């Protein structure tokens, strides 16, 4: 596991803020986008999961970027 304690407090706060801003509206945006994608519930749910997956991946990339600095 990565030693996060090696990051400064300011870096950790910045990372948390970036992740929070990435994920804060993701549920609402994913739900709205799925409604525009299809009228079928199964298709909407699949689209919503894929959309949320993108937000999760973006958050993980932010974490990896900080680990590699």
Structure overview:
By secondary structure, the protein is mainly α. It has one domain (16-67). Helix content is 78%, strand content 0%. The protein is built from three helices and no strands. It has helices at residues 9-23, 26-37, 41-67. Helix 1 (9-23) runs antiparallel to helix 3 (41-67) and helix 2 (26-37) packs antiparallel against helix 3. It is elongated. The two termini are 16 Å apart. The model has no long low-confidence stretch (mean pLDDT 89).
Q: State the shape.
A: elongated
Number of domains: 1
Arithmetic mean pLDDT: 89
Radius of gyration: 15 Å
H and E string = HHH
The count of helical stretches stands at 3
Percent range for β-strand residues: under 5%
Uncertain parts: none
Number of strands: 0
The main β sheet shows up as: none
Decide which structural class fits the backbone.
mainly alpha
How are the SSEs placed, and which strands pair?
Blueprint: H1 9-23, H2 26-37, H3 41-67
Helix pairs in contact: 1-3, 2-3
Summarize the structure.
By secondary structure, this protein is mainly α. It has one domain. Helix content is 78%, strand content 0%.
What would the keywords be for this entry?
78% helix, mainly alpha, 69 residues, 0% strand
């Amino acid at each position: 596991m990565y030693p996060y304690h090696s990051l400064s407090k300011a870096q950790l706060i910045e990372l948390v803020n970036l992740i929070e801003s990435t994920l804060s509206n993701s549920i609402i945006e994913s739900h709205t986008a799925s409604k525009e994608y299809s009228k079928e519930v199964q298709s909407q749910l699949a689209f919503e999961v894929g959309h949320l997956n993108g937000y999760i991946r973006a958050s993980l990339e932010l974490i990896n970027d900080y680990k590699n600095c």
